[in-house]
Hints:
This protein is an alpha+beta fold. It contains 6 helices and 15 strands.
Amino acid sequence: xxxxxxxxxxxxxxxxxxxxxxxxxxxxxxxxxxxxxxxxxxxxxxxxxxxxxxxxxxxxxxxxxxxxxxxxxxxxxxxxxxxxxxxxxxxxxxxxxxxxxxxxxxxxxxxxxxxxxxxxxxxxxxxxxxxxxxxxxxxxxxxxxxxxxxxxxxxxxxxxxxxxxxxxxxxxxxxxxxxxxxxxxxxxxxxxxxxxxxxxxxxxxxxxxxxxxxxxxxxxxxxxxxxxxxxxxxxxxxxxxxxxxxxxxxxxxxxxxxxxxxxxxxxxxxxxxxxxxxxxxxx
Length: 283
């Protein structure tokens, strides 16, 4: 066996067993054929190497972590276009997990090692339509090409150390069906939302958001460098370490580099805007 440092991607169809229980063998064959026809060309485009298929799952390696993440994003975009207008049973929703590290490669080309095991564990917590990846990928990829958000540390069975996990921040494209191009890619948890009776103007003090997975603070701070939101005041509480974001009149609204970024009581949304619209928006 030889050892090599690689980026490892694992994909699988969410709910595959449930879907196949309601399909004939011919329908299952057609679904897997569509999946392969959609996903394999994207893997090839980003110089990925298909190591093996495991049922509905693909194990793929890349020489570049950036290529691996960009490939994952592109796969999800291709599948989103394919799924438009389809019934739940006909959709192909996949989870994508990416890790980077040293693997052992046997004579057949198969790969083994802790880096592969970690990828499998990350795939187990990934959500359909998302690209999850580890800190090893985050540190080795070109972060200017892919906006991302830290999810937090996770402890996985069989892995001695906790693993820090990230996800790609995705936007909905502007289309005829979605003219505003608006998308909440993460809503605030119930405990972080404003009570129904509170109006935005009553909440002009410092608002403290959770720092952990799903909290707004991690997403906001992760976006700062990506979207140039330097006019937002960020403080760290000396005692608790919680991130605090000052929200004037209950919300933040920023336009930067062709994107409108809105942070309000229910979460964060981003939409692409036309160039002439940018002049009329507050900076």
